[in-house]
Amino acid sequence: MTVRRWTRTSKLFTGGTGVVALLLAIVPLVFGPDIVQKTTTLLILILLAAMWNALAGYGGLLSVGQQAFIGLGAYGTVFFAGLDIPPYLAMVLALVVAGSLSIPISLFALRLRAAQFAIGMWVIAEVASIAVRLDQNLGAGTGISLSQLYQYDPNYRQAYTFWLALAFTVVFLAAIFFLLRSPLGASLQAIRDDEDAARSLGVRVAARKRLLFVLAGFGCAAAGVLIVANTLFIEPGSVFSVQWSAYMIFMVLVGGLGTFEGPILGAILLFAIQTTFTQGGPWYLVGLGATAALFALVLPRGLWGTIEERLGLRLLPVGYQVVEKKK
Amino acid sequence: MTVANAILQGIFLGAFYAVLACGLSLMFGVMRIINLAHGDIAVFGAYVVLVVVQSTGLSPLLAFLVALPAMIALGYVLQLTVLQRALKGGILTPLLATFGLSIVIQNLLLLQFSPDVHSLGASAGALTTESWNLFGSITIPALGLVVLAVAVVVFGALHLFLSRTRPGWRMRATAEDPDAAELIGIDSRNVYATATAIAVAIAGLGGLFLAIRSVFDPVSGPTQLIFAFEAVVIGGMGSLWGTLMGGLALGVAQTLGAQLNPEYAVLSGHLLFLAVLILRFGGVRLARFGARA
Prior knowledge:
The complex is a heterodimer of chains A (327) and B (293).
Chain A: E1 2-4, H1 8-24, H2 27-30, H3 33-59, H4 67-82, H5 87-100, H6 102-109, H7 114-133, E2 144-145, H8 154-181, H9 183-193, H10 195-200, H11 205-231, E3 233-234, H12 236-239, H13 243-255, H14 262-276, H15 281-298, H16 302-311, E4 321-323
Antiparallel strand pairs in A: 1-4, 2-3
Helix pairs in contact in A: 3-8, 3-11, 3-13, 3-14, 4-5, 4-7, 4-11, 5-11, 6-11, 8-9, 8-11, 13-14, 13-15, 13-16
Chain B: H1 2-31, H2 38-56, H3 60-88, H4 93-113, H5 126-129, E1 131-134, E2 138-141, H6 142-164, H7 166-176, H8 178-183, H9 188-213, H10 221-235, H11 240-260, H12 265-279
């Protein structure tokens, strides 16, 4: 018996992923603004799914309120840009400030269990949404545009936003990838598999969960920044909407909760569904909700988790495999 | 006196939240799960009553009695198809499954009834318009009194059911320890289905009050869920009478906040909820006597 991490497939695939990320960087140079904007949306979905999976898949923290950080990141960008800070610097500032808010929030949110945490986070998102609605300078309930971005030529603006989205997505995904492969990651995966057992083995569960919560806070804030940069207009009703949580839950559950590759697969699926059913509408959402519930009940490890289990396939290895030693 | 009046109106409003929260609290007490579709089920109940009122011309209160069997049946089906299976999964499965269900219910309602806003206020007639004045500045609305009385009756009846009847004992035994209860011959599936049926029926009652006292549309559910959950947590999770008190506290917080600025109403309720969570992470037990439900 031997323990291995890399296989030929996973080496090829991990290398391939790096190449894809590099190739994606030239998308704005090759394609028109429509495709660039759509690909930006896909990157935002991948980022969101990966963050929600970090929370729920590894930390066992089911949040229905990550839209708090999405909204704060988006509105933070508008706020800082309004202070005559260059818009792209404002985005970075908003990411840092909105993401950092996850630290004080974690102090009490992480003491809550299951439903208390889920709905507690939702209420925090509602409070943030009401606070924005009460502020006339942020457009109150009617929304506000990031007009400072209009100074750039639309093609350049779209390209900058795309590169920012690519950079954020790569950085956060790489952070999770290397985090999970580090000794720390072993403890995270132990928490995912059995929290009590992990605790009894001396894993500092609370500290690990805080790490994931703050990471997800920053990641969702980054997504919020990208959303306002991509759409140029936000309103509290949509950017703080619980619909974001619904999308995240769908992507992660269908892709595979607690797997690294699953959320990416889930995001691509959701993106494909969204581009096919462009009208959206209630039937499309009925389908999303029913699919998420079905996966939770019938296939809790999602598509990727099931594939992994059946085929022993690891494409982006974050764990180890025990294999028979070849003669 | 305006403050005294605000507190009184808060109690009437809070009685409504307590009715909304009652089923949520019962299901948590018995099965340790929170049904994230609870608010949408209440709104579904409001639509069922609306359909009965529109097709028969009955008053909303009578129409609710017609709708009641449908709600009870829905509760049984919900338990046997979705929740029973979700209970076997991990701690997150019931939350995930009911969140998906919530989206399904909202959008099915949207398909059937369009996004238009409805109200049963007009069909309820004098119930919504009648009110009495005390000392000039204190108003007692008829609807508020009725909701408060119904809330006390519902919680009282549930308390008696749990403390005095055999099915109630079985429910409490299953809540304490389902495996031990199975050993003495209690069918937990049956108990859980009964609890969910009761919870869904009371949620429908909450939906009826929502429809009479204000307006509703297909996506009103999540807000009702948040209010109901806040009432449960403020009162202390696992305590039925605590939920009644929690609902009243939430109502009073909202009307007092509205005294400062109408836009602060919902916000002050949220802040009370978060304050309670911060003070006592398990939830403050405002009241705890009689049956543990």
